[in-house]
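User: Hey, quick favor. My workstation is busy. Could you predict this chain's structure for me?
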Amino acid sequence: MLISWNMLNDVLHLPASLEEVAERLTLTGSEVESIDRPGALLKGIQIAEIESLGPHPEKDTLFVARIRDGNGLATAVTAATNLSEGDRVAYGRPGAVMADGTVLEAKAFGDVLSEGMLLSAQELGVPDAADEYGILRLPSDAPVGEDAALFLGLDDAILDLSITPDRGDLLSLLGVAREVYGLFPEAEWKNNPAEQTMEGDLAEWPVNFDGITLEGDGCSKYCLGLATGLKPGPSPLKTRIALSFLGMRPISNMVDASNIAMLILGQPTHAFDSGRLPGPEITVRPARPGEIIRTLDGKDHSLDGADLLITSGGEPVGIAGVMGGESSEILPQTETVLLEAASFDPITVSRTSRRLGIPSEAAFRFARTVDPALAETTLIYIANLLKEWGCAETAYRIKSSSSPAAAPKEVSLTRKALKKILLTDDMDRSDAILERLGLRQTASDEGLRTYSVPSWRPDIKIEEDLIEEVGRVLGYNETMPPRLPQALYGRGDIGETTRLKGFMRSTLPARGYVELVNYSFLSPSFVKLLRLPESDRRANPLKLANPLSTEQSRMRTTLLPGLLRSLELTVQTGWKAPVRIFELGRVFLPLEEGGHEERERIAGLAYGGRDPRHPFGPSERDDFFSLKGDLLALAESRGAVLNFERGEEPFGHRGQTAFITWESRKAGYLLRLKPSIEKELECGPLYAFELDLEPLEAEHPASFRETSPFPPVYRDISLVVPSDHTMEEIAGEIRKEGGELLRDIRLFDIYSGKGIPEGSRSLAFSLAYRKEDKTLTDSEVDEIHARIRQRLEKAGYTLR
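Assistant: No problem, here it is.
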């Protein structure tokens, strides 16, 4: 936000220097990022009057001017064709300095010596302020001999403030002036821009107008002002210069009046050509899905039901708070103007602006909340400007429509909370600070005071907000007494989840992974990419109420899309080497009964790269089992037991997808992505895993004991099982019967082929039996081994 130091001094008596004000604003939350002095190099430029003007005796394209400034008469040669005798201009004698630092000198043009130079807007450092080609002509009342930089405000300093999203009230000169008034107790109002009145009796509208209709809750207040007999032309020079310094290009008197009003008061406005409106009325309503409007930039936009429209005669004439429509824009021949000032819902405007890609100044302000009390004030301010400039008749009543006003918000401050947080119980001093910030005390009791929150501070909602206001004005460094912290009971702990994440961030890079950090927001397109069916709750992510963009409008239900997007961008840059990446973060899953649950997860992705050449052959590439090895190593380092079962995911390759289970429930997946997804991303094969952190949070250190002096007894068992039965299922049956004597099960052979029925395979296990206090006899082992074989036969397996 750009703020003019000169304009700030026009509205406030300031007891501090520019640097002091900038430092105080920065320390209290409104950081001044820079201070620019556009005319800092200007020196010796005076206001002069052209006494005579004639052609150059030798050069047809030049003119010779005799000018009078504060030091007498002088001669200047110029090529400008826009000058006349009596014009007042900016003139620099030899030795004067232009805005770019050029030092002027006397220069001969043929037999005529030019003593310095007449300056254009470009040479004064304000090229956008020019309303014609040539020398910049000053107002006829410009005092001859005075410093032109001082007269035009070219000595100004421009403060660039970084305003936080919750302080939309600071997006104007008025808002910053209120803030500075609150920060400096000695500051006094000189000319409060919020106090606007129109002199004389206000007339009824001379044009037919049926009224304003508000539909829905997107607009709480809508006001219209009227200007007739508009005479299009440039705005006054000082206004054009001020707009240029504040980052806006001067256009015309009507537009400039609206823009300077927005910069001073913070209320965006929009002007309609009354004669081009489809009907003599204005309706503010939600758009109909598919409704089309062409905006002032000449682009057509398709709207949906979440957008808010300004219509006339049933036809769209503007997107509320974002941009006006082309059909009713002001033209050079426009004479009658309807001027809009309204209060639109911030979330609606922000969502529409981002969705349609229209980042207008109006949308920027409405998205951060505009004070509804400013609508009439701004229309009066613009009306007074147009009247002062003599370019329109504006003494008409303002028409308005609004929803029932909400009761003024009140927030209480207690002495106890003030003491607890700021270490002060001075309620009177706090009251004085809050009063200067615009919060009026409405009730007082022992240790408690209640304040009415002004309409321009919607960010103040609870007691802590009042304490923050007091604290930032008092200052956290100089005013708070030093003290030791109160006694801490117990020992602080970062928590198992944070500790686990730190462990993973040191372990996985050792296995070749690089950590990524992606936004928690996704594009809705991830559902299509992962082929998620509507019945999958991951396909129904939470929608953001106020997204940064469509590409970041959903809360992620899985970490995989962020990894895939990062890999895709990496490969597009020309990367050919293998990639191993992982991410730690939360996913947000909707619940059937409403609301959502959040889970901490880890996800990984491996890609073999685009260059197939490896010194040791294809075994060096990642595959399903290399990622499984990483997961098992991670689990074993935490003492966790993870199992892998055959499974299916919408985005997983059939036959190369496994569910990761923990304590008999699904905790994640390990898979190769579908070939169709790999083709879409133009890279593959891709292997991925995603796992809840819960199984790994509780660390189970390895335990040690003395080795048993009694040797184990081994027996082998071979059986034919259906191919869709896993080794873990078979091992589970064996363990159930083996009891405490069965110490280990090891799969040592898998065979399918000749001699084995189709759809089956042969598995061979080595079983180790042991007892701690004696050596088992063959008869003891044979007995338990026979029971295991019987159990397997009863389960339907064929023993070999």
